[in-house]
Amino acid sequence: MAKITVIATPIGNLQDITLRAIQAIKSADLILCEDTRTSKKILNFLEIKDKKLISYHKFNEKSTIAKMSDIFLTNQNIILMSDAGTPSISDPGQILIKWAHENNVEVDFLPGACAFVGAFVLSGFDLPLVFMGFFNSKKQQIIKQIEHFILNYSYIFYVSPYKLIYILEVINEFYGEKVEIFLVKEMTKIHQKYFFGSPLKVLAELQNSTKGEFTMVLRLKNDEKPKLKANKYENFSKNSVKF
């Protein structure tokens, strides 16, 4: 029976590939790639040659599984890797993994880079967190994604650079100063940069410099004064017998 190993790949700096991922790639019989050209760059960097690469992306997931189901059931080591980051996290993978479970095919996961985890760590915001995937493109769809934010929760989105300015404008129109934003650009790359503050402040600091890959963390401001915890011994102290 085959084994499918899901591998996280670097999100910017190729040196972030893990030792376990390198070993798994070297021993793989077949590699499913979101884009074979991108995966070849990773393999060339690792000096790994003569590997069979199969295109596996969001437009051909089901058809690829249907065509290759017999191969998936044979005794082969199969790798699933995205162009960057972790498969199934806003990348192909979920359908294949579900199919594997339904067909008793072993699945393993080798952890590594994940943009939304890195952005949350850098934000300094607190748990709990909710990963929302990519922002939608239309105003009403964006509002539906953000209108039910809960106080003390952190919400994380991937953002297309082509929609970034518009999305910030919609967030500002809906929340104004009531929301804090942490926006990180080109994470792990040479030109990594982050922006922090209200939607208007982030817009001003961006100065229309929207080339690159962005991850956004949002959190409603808590302007209420913290309530002091009740002293469970207070009543006892007041009513205690004095000698």
Describe the protein in words.
It is a single chain. This protein is an alpha/beta fold. It contains 9 helices and 10 strands. The protein has a 5-stranded parallel sheet with strand order 3-2-4-1-5, sandwiched between helices. A 5-stranded mixed sheet has the order 6-7-10-8-9, with helices on both faces. The longest helix is centred in the first third of the chain and has 12 residues, at 61-72. It is elongated, with a radius of gyration of 23 Å.
Number of strands: 10
- Strand portion, in percent? 15-25%
CATH architecture of the largest domain: 3-Layer(aba) Sandwich
Indicate the structural class.
Answer: alpha/beta
Task: Report the sheet with the most strands, covering strand number, pairing sense and barrel closure.
Answer: 5 strands, parallel
Percent range of helical residues = 25-40%
- Can you identify the CATH superfamily of the largest domain? Tetrapyrrole methylase, N-terminal domain
What's the CATH class label of the largest domain? Answer: Alpha Beta
